[in-house]
Design goal:
globular, binds coenzyme A, alpha+beta
Length: 201
């Protein structure tokens, strides 16, 4: 199947909102998070399920990866903006805030795509599921530009998408728990992927 095509309807602010639950805070990633993000981006278990499959070798490499989260395609008002969030474990004191993962709308063109990772020390506690639900709430709550359709090309229900390797059962489960459905398959080099989609309800 071809990759999805969908314009971005969200109007993305220059400084994104933050959101919290009892145990997590999601706030926009900043440059000083590079070390904390490197702590898990340098782990083979994280690299194995991402593309390219090489763990980050330096904080500088993590900074370069962080810069890829800034949108370079899409409507002119989204270019230069991003929707990249640090997952902060609130059980640590404010001065020792611990970033235990990150997630983002990693691109908006040709379709809005979700990406995330959690530090392996924090796996299996529902962190990714809870953080993704919080991110989706912020995303759906953003103001929207008017969709332009006509009788030949009616506007479809807005969606957000995720590509996930079929063998990545943990991540497929996170997406399913957040309401995503498989809408197709996609092969990227050696990787067999599911295309997941979630409707804006
Ligand atoms: C995928 C990832 C984000 C999950 O983080 P997490 O905080 O452990 O996720 P959660 O605890 O919210 O949910 C994981 C679910 O997957 C299930 N799961 C985990 N490993 C599994 C496996 N090998 N087979 C089947 N289910 C599995 C868990 O049981 C849980 O489901 P449950 O609540 O129904 O029991 C984390 O493993 C990670 O960062 N992986 C590497 C990066 C990555 O894969 N990113 C996504 C790319 S698409």
């Amino acid at each position: 199947m071809d990759l999805p095509q969908q314009p971005v309807y969200a109007i993305i602010p220059s400084q994104g909102p933050s959101i919290e639950s009892d145990r997590l805070l999601l706030r926009p990633v900043c440059d000083s998070d590079a070390e904390a993000l490197f702590a898990f981006r340098s782990r083979p278990e994280i690299a194995e399920m991402n593309h390219p499959k090489e763990p980050h070798k330096s904080i500088e490499e993590t900074r370069e990866w962080m810069s890829t989260k800034t949108f370079s395609e899409g409507p002119s008002d989204v270019i230069g903006r991003s929707f990249h969030y640090a997952i902060v474990d609130k059980s640590f004191s404010k001065t020792q805030q611990r970033v235990i993962g990150s997630l983002s709308i990693s691109q908006v063109a040709p379709f809005p795509e979700i990406g995330y990772a959690v530090h392996p020390d924090a796996w299996g506690k529902g962190i990714a599921t809870e953080a993704l639900q919080l991110l989706l709430k912020m995303w759906w709550d953003l103001p929207r530009r008017t969709a332009e359709g006509d009788s030949a090309h009616p506007v479809e229900v807005e969606k957000v998408f995720a590509l996930c390797e079929k063998r990545n059962r943990g991540s497929c489960r996170v997406l399913e728990k957040c309401g995503f459905k498989v809408v197709g398959d996609y092969q990227h080099e050696q990787d067999e992927l599911y295309i997941f989609a979630l409707d804006r309800s």
